[in-house]
Design goal:
Layout lengths: L8 E5 L14 H11 L7 E3 L6 H10 L2 E5 L2 E2 L9 E3 L4 E3 H5 L8 E5 L17 H7 L4 E5 L5 H15 L14 H11 L6 H5 L1 E5 L1
Parallel strand pairs: 1-2, 1-3, 3-7, 7-8
Antiparallel strand pairs: 4-5, 5-6, 8-9
Helix pairs in contact: 1-5, 5-6
């Protein structure tokens, strides 16, 4: 077990990646507003967005925080898995970038981006994808996606997920990343009247 450090939560959003890097994600701003409201004050939640949500800015956020929420475009590269990436402003944040970074005291990551847990079709037991890269780098618990995410409805899953993650968290209580699988299960059932089935099934949990 790593030494426990005070929690710190960062939300990174990049809804306007620039020309040629994917369509604008109009709902990520409202998604992160919900996240910011639900994160306990003790976690000192910060947000990185717009021009600050660059490759360097996102890597720094991963290095300096124990809990991370990423809302952006994601892409799996089946030919060169280490080139799988998150789309930031100006440059791509690749899986190799993440694995080359000295990330310490990490706890949890929510990857609200497309294709973050997609493995290779021919060798499914040899998985190299974005969520696995974060796990290899030290994140204990991760929520990722199996296919394309509709950002307009994903915020419903995100809201209920964090409501359950931080439910009954009293003063002095520790944020517990091991509740993630349970919280995701609760969220999947809770939003079934608001979110289409394929957008409830898209999120999966790996880790503890």
């Amino acid at each position: 077990m790593k030494k426990r450090v005070p929690p710190s939560f960062v939300a990174v959003r990049q809804g306007q990646p620039g020309a040629g890097k994917g369509k604008a994600l109009s709902a990520v701003d409202s998604e992160l507003e919900l996240v910011h409201k639900l994160v306990p004050a003790a976690a000192n939640c910060t947000t990185i967005s717009g021009d600050a949500a660059t490759r360097a800015g996102a890597l720094q956020a991963l290095e300096e925080n124990t809990w991370v929420h990423l809302a952006c475009h994601g892409k799996q590269d089946p030919a060169q898995p280490y080139n799988s990436h998150f789309v930031m402003r100006g440059e791509l944040l690749t899986l190799l970038d993440i694995m080359d970074t000295d990330i310490l005291h990490t706890e949890f990551a929510f990857l609200s981006a497309c294709h973050t847990t997609v493995g290779d079709e021919k060798t499914p037991d040899e998985v190299i994808h974005l969520a696995a890269g974060l796990q290899f780098s030290g994140f204990k618990s991760i929520v990722g996606t199996l296919w394309e995410v509709d950002d307009a409805v994903a915020k419903h899953d995100v809201k209920v997920f964090y409501e359950n993650m931080f439910m009954d968290l009293k003063d002095g209580a520790v944020m517990d990343c091991t509740k993630a699988a349970w919280a995701l299960n609760r969220a999947t059932h809770a939003v079934k009247t608001e979110v289409p089935l394929e957008q409830r099934m898209v999120f999966i949990h790996i880790g503890v």
